[in-house]
Amino acid sequence: MRRRWSAVVAVACGTLLAVAAWTALPADGAGQPAPARALETAELDLLHTAGELLVQDCMRAQGFSYWPVPRVAHADLRDFPYGVDDVDWARGHGFGRRIERRLDEEAAAGPRARYRSGLPPERLEALGVALMGPDAKGLAVENPGGGTLSHSDRGCITASWRQLYGDVRLWFGASETVKQLGAVRTGRVGQDPAFRTALAGWSECVGRRGFPAEHPVRQRDEQLARKGPAAEAEDVPMATAQAECARSTGLADTAQDLHRRYSDMIRAEHGAAFDAMRRMQVAALPTARDVVARHAGS
């Protein structure tokens, strides 16, 4: 799904949506320290809320207004990395076009957009510097998918990390690595021979349904790129065919089995990043509770 400025901030303030997709690490052998646990959804919500409130405090101290961004933009918003495979969701939402439109409309009419539109160019630029830092320098980590990821070691987002997690370099390196590993996992699943075999059966199935396609994600992206009433009228029947074929041909089950298998492999390969990130998250929970409680009482 595509989200704009608000979602960029939400991800930057904690990387929690991607983090939540990884399950607990398996126990190590005897004599090895137990790996850090994965956080519960409520704990991830707490950390995100605290981070957003800290950003809000920091921005206010610099003379700017800031509206905290929810961790989940919409209750019905779903991510399907291997194509839509939930038949009921497809029947109700197609490919999620209306959810996306509603979120865009709410964002355009919301206080954040009105506030930004009322700022002169120099103040708008200063707002970006206050939030994100003057440049993407100071924090860097090798991207497991290739290249280098960097972020400013200044700005209110980094300040919120410092208050919650302490060592911002370790936090950025570990959490950003984990976030990027989601794409690595999706790529490995997509290249697995079992997935490609199941994909051929899925392609034949949707073709018989009148929606020829070679890959469900490409089919979805191409459909969402089409505009107008005629295109939108096809969203639900096409998404439903995609999901029903994913179920009937075994593509959905194959993708989920491979998803779990590669999750285990990737966690083993990058255990240090997962462990560091999770230990920092657990350690940050008391501070996060204090931040949320302080704001609730203010």
TrEMBL record:
Name the domain of life. Answer: Bacteria
Quick one: signal sequence residues?
1-20
Q: Which UniProt keywords apply?
A: Signal
> What protein name does the entry list?
Secreted protein
Q: Which organism is it from?
A: Streptomyces virginiae
